[in-house]
Backbone:
């Protein structure tokens, strides 16, 4: 399927060949976790090289010792530990100072500490004061509910570690939350894939805003439109019109002019 100016709403530019990315069929990317000073430079380079526009979150905001601070792939300077609600404003302001236009938080309860509701709410409030959306990596029981309860605007992945019940799906849709797909990363894990597909199918059917995203940089993924991701979105129930919308949606702000 040929759709002009596709936006991949979940990439990690520090983990891919950025020079090759300029030759891809993407029109825009959203970086969801990097060293803020480095990704700012990469975004400038991409724009100068070929017009591919990158918007970015800067560092992962997480609890002390939280994901992905212990992961070998995490770039140096790519994590900002938010210790209390009082730290939230400084954490967000630092990302904004590097040009961030979205804020990324991690809620990976299966990997270590996560932001408590008070601190997470303070991060959301600080980001919203700049009129920036907050996107969360949710993994583990109860993390989707925590993100929704604290006003998180988008999920970086379709939830795959738990079935999101219908009431919570409906609440997410009513609250205007977006879900970034990243379905194809579960290839080879039938359980995770089935849970994610079921969650996204019900979210989309309820009127939820679905965004195409691949988690580019996570393993061996193609530099460009990912046919496996497109196929997975179709399995989740998106028709041609819904798929084109997911592929070209300007979230978090107009990337295509």
Residues:
């Amino acid at each position: 399927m040929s759709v002009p100016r596709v936006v991949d709403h979940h990439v990690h530019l520090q983990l891919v060949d950025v020079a090759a990315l300029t030759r891809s069929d993407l029109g825009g990317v959203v970086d969801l976790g990097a060293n803020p000073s480095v990704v700012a430079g990469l975004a400038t380079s991409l724009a100068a090289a070929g017009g591919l526009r990158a918007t970015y979150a800067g560092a992962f905001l997480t609890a002390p010792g939280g994901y992905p601070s212990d992961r070998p792939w995490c770039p140096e300077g790519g994590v900002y530990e938010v210790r209390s609600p009082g730290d939230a404003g400084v954490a967000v302001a630092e990302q904004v100072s590097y040009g961030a236009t979205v804020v990324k938080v991690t809620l990976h309860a299966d990997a270590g500490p996560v932001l408590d509701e008070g601190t997470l709410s303070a991060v959301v409030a600080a980001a919203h004061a700049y009129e920036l959306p907050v996107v969360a990596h949710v993994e583990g029981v109860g993390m989707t509910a925590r993100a929704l309860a604290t006003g998180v605007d988008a999920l970086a992945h379709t939830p795959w570690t738990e079935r999101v019940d219908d009431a919570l799906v409906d609440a997410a849709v009513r609250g205007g939350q977006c879900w970034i797909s990243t379905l194809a990363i579960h290839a080879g894990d039938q359980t995770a894939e089935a849970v994610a597909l079921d969650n996204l199918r019900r979210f989309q059917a309820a009127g939820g805003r679905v965004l195409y995203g691949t988690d580019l940089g996570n393993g061996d993924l193609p530099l460009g439109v990912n046919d496996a991701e497109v196929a997975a979105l179709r399995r989740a129930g998106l028709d041609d019109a819904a798929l084109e919308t997911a592929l070209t949606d300007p979230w978090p702000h107009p990337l295509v002019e």
